Amino acid sequence: MRLAYLGPVGTYGEQAATQLAALAGLEATLIPQPGIQAVIRALAEGDCEAAVVPVENSVEGGVTSCLDALWQYPELVICHGLVLPIRHALLGSGPLEGISEVLSHPQALAQCPQWLAENLGGALQLPTSSTAEAARMVRGSRFRAAIASLAAAQEHGLEVIAYPINDVVGNCTRFLLLRRQPLEAGSGPHASLAFSLNANRPGALLEALTCFAGEGLNMSRIESRPSKRSMGEYIFFVDLDLSQGMAPLDRAMAELRPHCEKLILFGVYPLTVVQPQEGSNNAANN
Fold first, then answer.
1. How many CB atoms are closer than 10 A to CB 153?
2. Average pLDDT value for residue range 114-120
3. Which of 4, 17, 45, 208 pairs as cysteine with 52 (C-beta 3.0–4.6 A)?
4. Of 117, 118, 110, 132, which Cα lies nearest the Cα of 61?
5. Does domain 188-269 have CATH number 3.30.70.260?
6. Helices in 53-201 by DSSP H: which ranges?
7. Phi–psi pair at 108, nearest 5 degrees
8. Predicted confidence band at 278 (pLDDT cuts at 50, 70, 90)?
9. Domain 89-162, CATH 3.40.190.10 — does that match?
């Protein structure tokens, strides 16, 4: 089985893909992709049979490129979720004092602002497509450094200048395993869906959310994204806890549908949380 992930080798996405494949019992060949939308598109267009993407970070919130792509390809189904703890490292080939540029994925840069301000306040911060790509780009430079994982340091022959450097100790990212399969094949205590409303009027969103409250469903997450069609028009992404099984979700979906222009259930699935270990190079995001 071919499994797409955000490459190149050494990203946190690769770590998540390896663990999710094992959890799902898949014998997978990992296929790196240059961006998150490219990962999902590879699955949607049949270039691979499964994909792993980051959907939410506990500090920076939703990964917007993933949310937009899920809405664009409703035929893809979430099969499993994985929460990984973050351990960002500063990698390079020269001393900390000589670094004038720091490269990484925008989410990784945003997870280390305090450390960067205190230790590399004058350094230019440059975004890259992934943390491992940043590690590849700084190899051999004495004035550039990358924020990436310990695995990326080993893969690209870089020194670990500082570790860990993320500001929030409990920082973690949730990854999703996606496949093309019947929605009915899923099961687990979590559900993810998205909807757009029929009209932008007072109380419309409240009426929609009441469908979940009326069935005793707890929303563990809600986030809005612009529809990209007109100003003030939004898509709402919701995660639900299914402590009472599928029946309340089925009833809530039936109640919600008349309020919606479009309603998509992305999947019902298990969620595995990896506990942080001292000295581990487990990390999340990108």
1. 22
2. 96
3. 17
4. 110
5. yes
6. 64-72, 106-110, 113-119, 131-138, 150-156
7. -65, -40
8. low
9. yes
